[in-house]
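Complex 212.
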Amino acid sequence: MESDSSCIDLTHLNEEELPMKFDESLKLSDKEDAGADDYSDIISLRLLDLTDVDDFMEWFTDDNVSKFCSCDSFVSKEDAMRYIADVVIPHPWFRAICLNGKPIGSISVSPFQGSDRCRGELGYELSSKYWGRGIATMAVKMVAAAIFVEWPHLERLEAVVAVDNPGSQRVLEKAGFIKEGVLRKYYLLNGKPKDVFMFSLLSTDTQVAYFM
Ligand SMILES: CC(C)(COP(=O)(O)OP(=O)(O)OC[C@H]1O[C@@H](n2cnc3c(N)ncnc32)[C@H](O)[C@@H]1OP(=O)(O)O)[C@@H](O)C(=O)NCCC(=O)NCCS
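Predicted structure with coenzyme A bound:
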C-alpha cells in the first residue's frame, strides 16, 4: 500500500460543526493531494438536504458519471428533490463530498441485513469537473475511518466496480482495498450485463487504523 501523509484533522471542528455523530462533519485537509499551486482546499463529508438540490443535480445529471453508475439520473429538479427526500435523507449512511463546503459528489455505505449484516457496500460518484485531484480517494479513506467506528458490527466494507472503470479501481487500491476477483455479469448497467471486480476492506485491516 502506498504511504499517505494526509490526516483527518478533527481540530478544525467546533461544537456546532460536531453534533451527535462525529462523521456528520468530518473534515480533511487535502494539502498533500491538492494541485501544486492550491493548498487551500478542504474536503469534508456531510449529510445532504433538500437545499442541496442544485449542487446534487450537477453530478447526478453528469453523463460522465452516469455511464459508470447504476444510480438514477435526473432531468428535472422536481425528480431530484423527490429522490433526495425519498432515498438520500432516509438512507442509513449517505453523505455529500464537499470541496470547501460545496457538495460536488456523494458517497454512501449500504448495509446488508440478517446474516449478511457484517457487510456494507460502498458507492461514490463525483462531478467530472473535479476528477483527478485525489478527492474520491480521500473521501473513501474518510468513510473507512468513520464507518467501522459508527457501525461496530461491520466487519467488511465492499465495493463492486465495473472491469472497464479503471479510475474507480485505482481509487479503491489507493485507499487500501483488496481486489478479490471478478464477478461475471454481476449487474446491469444501462441495460447491459457488466463484469465487475469485487474489492473489500476489513475492520481488522491495518490500514483502517492508519486512516483514523
Ligand atoms: C471514480 C471517481 C469517483 C474517481 O474520482 P477522482 O476524485 O477522480 O479519483 P482520484 O483522483 O482520487 O483517483 C483517480 C485515480 O484513477 C486514475 N485514473 C483515472 N482514469 C483512469 C483510467 N482511464 N485508467 C487508469 N487510471 C485512471 C487516476 O490517474 C488516479 O490515480 P493516480 O492518483 O494514481 O494517478 C470518479 O471518476 C467518478 O465519479 N466516476 C463516475 C462514477 C463512478 O465510477 N463511481 C464509482 C462506481 S464503482
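Strands lie at 26-29, 42-46, 94-99, 102-111, 119-126, 156-162, 178-189, 192-202.
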